[in-house]
Each structure stands twice: as structure tokens, then as C-alpha cells.
Amino acid sequence: MLRRVGLSPSLYRCIPTCTCSLSGKSNAPLPDPVPDVAPSDTSLPDYNTDVNVHSHRLKRPDKPPGTRWKGLDGLKSETRGSLIPDTLKEMDENPEFQLTASNLRRLGQATLTREERKKRQRALDDLGVPKFKDFIQDSLGATNSQLTKNKVEILQLNIGLYCNQACSHCHVESSPKRAEVMTRDIADRCLDILAQSPSIHTLDLTGGAPELCPEFRYLATKGRQLGKHVIDRCNLTVLLEPGQEDLGNFLAENQIHVIASLPCYTAKNLNLQRGKGVFGKSIQALLVLNALGYGQQDSSLKLDLVYNPLGAYLPPKQDQLEEKYRQELGDTFGIQFNRLFTMTNMPIKRFADFLHRRNELEDYMQLLVRNFNPTTVDHLMCRNHLSVNWDGRLYDCDFNQQLDIGVTQNKGEGEQDSSASHVRKGTTVWDISSAGDLMGFKVATDNHCFGCTAGMGSS
Q1: Which of 329, 362, 415, 447 could be stapled to 123 by a disulfide with Cβ–Cβ 3.0 to 4.6 Å?
Q2: Cα(449)–Cα(145) distance, integer angstroms
Q3: Are 326 and 334 in contact (CB under 8 A)?
Q4: Contact between 178 and 163 (Cβ < 8 Å)
Q5: What pTM, to 2 d.p., does this model score?
């Protein structure tokens, strides 16, 4: 039997109704195929499906607006307990972590850092790119290219490398296996410098997970007593660690500004970058902070989020991504925040290893150079920050700190050789009385600095 289907007589086609045998095979003859007619682009604009049908994927159906994540039910109970056992297990099972640990034991940190720098330099040499200092001089002219220390406004303390996570992009290489933490005498010396430096308006506490370091609450409290704005660089999951049940209240009571890393609003991408189980704990921690007033309209408790890319590409436009985050986090979880900041991944430490293993380091360095943004130069963190390591050594920025490129101790010109002893050793908190002592000092630069001047930068 035949039946007609279609919208108009000119489009009627005859197709067989089902006359299948019991064996499941059709006994009816197939109709002759309708011959392809070469259409114009205007008549069939979407007649362009890729012939590589093996690569076709079904798009997930769109969620109706306001649909809440099913995982919210029971999330509080499911996220109880420490993340550290899962992080340690993942580190022990991950071949990339094992390779890095083996190289660290065999070669030592200083040798690995030098080898990493050589890889970046080889990539830039292959591209014909000059040293960073020469590059910005060629781009901006000699008058505008001299990077010197301006008035220091932010004192950033890396108070320890211990962390309950081990993120794949971490430029600090923190983990539960790191034991380095700041001691009270160095913390007190940092506070003395802070008190003697009227130009500094912000105390920025970072790590690792700074909240898990013994001196965190002491420094945060004293910083507030000195009338300074205090920032906590928070990984979120730390709020759910055993023993940190009162951390949220402490932050709120002391008006601590929380800047939290959240590289995606989906579980798959976030867990891929930050570890199994991190997504659920991060969402629960944000809900805890919201309940305390963080990120709420008309609240003085500030909650900002930070995005960094999953791979070797630049972040999206910050204002557009902020709106996307606001929509996704608000509609799906009921979460509010104040601002979103996008950061370019720096080609150092774990992310540099990631790029090298994937043979993407040269392409990424080329991406950074190709997207040099001259407007970032005046706002680089190295110009108005003073970065202090857990052991009291001074650096121009957090990235130089991780590469052990210390404050240069001079006001001369010329890019510093990061292997030189006067740069590597730098100065310590015991060598200065205030941040003003560094005014006009030459900023130490190297080949990683292209990361801070690409796109919207990483400062």
C-alpha cells in the first residue's frame, strides 16, 4: 500500500507503509531516490552538512530558564568531609603528576625551573621573537618601555604552598604534599612593613590555600586593624574542610574581600582542571558565602570570581563572560557574585609542563606574542605590587616568585638574566623598612612576561 505525504501536490512523494515480515525485514521495494538538484546558496542555505558523519554529535537539549541543578538536593551532606584524600589519590594515580614528582626528585626544583625557561626561550627563538624588554621597546618606543617600580599599593603575601587541591594549571604547584608555610616572625615583619608603607592600601593573602596556613587569620586580622583592605585568594573548597567550619563567619566578620577561582560553571570542565569532586564543593561553598551576605546586592561583603582557560587559548571578553557566568550561576544554582575577572594562563610550572607534553608550547608563546596589548603595560602588577614569598624573599610579582626571579636590587637598565645570583637571591623582608625603599627599582622581566601583556593580561 502507498500513501502520500507532503505539503503541496508538487512535493508529493510515494513511500511504502510498513510491510515488514516477521523476520524484521521489509518485503516492499524501495522507491527510486530523488535525484539531487544543485541548488543555489540562497534557496538552500543550510544544505552543507559535513560528510564526516562519524564526527557528528547531538546537542544537549536546552534547559528551560530557571531550571535548578538537580545536584543541589542533598549537596550539603554530599560535600561534607575533606577533599585531601581524593586529591592525594588522584596525584598518585595521575601519570603526569608522577612524572613531575620523579623529575623533581631526580633534578631538583632549581634545575627544573631553568629547563622550563630554556623551553620557552627555544620556542621564542624559533619564532624570531626578541627578549621581552626589547620587544616592548620596539613596540612602545624607548621612552615608554622602561618597566620600573611605581608607588607600591598592594602587598601580596604567599603564605604557604600547602593546599587541599592540586590544579592542573597551578603556577604555584601547590598540593597537600607541600609543607612550606610562613612563620610568625616573617608574618610580623611583613606587618611592620605594611604599617610603615602608607602607599599600600591592600593586603593580598594567597597560597596554596592561604586559609590552611597557620598565620592566615593572624595576618588578616592585623591587616584589618591597620585599616587595610584585605583580600583572600580562595579556592572555595577550603570552606568545607574539617576544622574550617567557622571560616566563612571569620571572613564576613572581618570584612575580608573574597576573590575565588572558578574556571567554569559546569562540573565536567571544572573537575577536569581542578580535580574530582571540586565542582560540587565549590558550588556549596558559594552558597555558604551567599548566605553570609557575600555577593549580595547592597552588601559590603565582596565576592569576585576568577576565570582562566582550560587550555592553550586566551580568555573570552571579560564583560561578556561575566554576564554568562551571572546567568548560568544565577539560573542554575541561585548564586550571586560581584565581579568576574578573566586571567590569561601563564606558561610556567604545571601549565608549561602541560603545553610541552602536548607539543603546544611554541604555538602558545606565538599566541601570546601575536596578541600583545600595549595598554596592559601601564597596569602590570609588577609595577605596583610587592610580592613576598613564604620565606620572606621579595619579588616584583607572584609569577617571578614562582620562577625565583627576585627583586633586582638596582635601578639600572637592561633585562636581567634570571640565572644571575643578584636576581635569584633578591632581597628579603629584613632588607627594607618600607615599600618606598623599592621606588624606581628596575622590574625584573623574562620570557614568561608575554603572558601578562597578551589580550587583557594576567595581572
Answers
A1: 362
A2: 13
A3: no
A4: yes
A5: 0.81
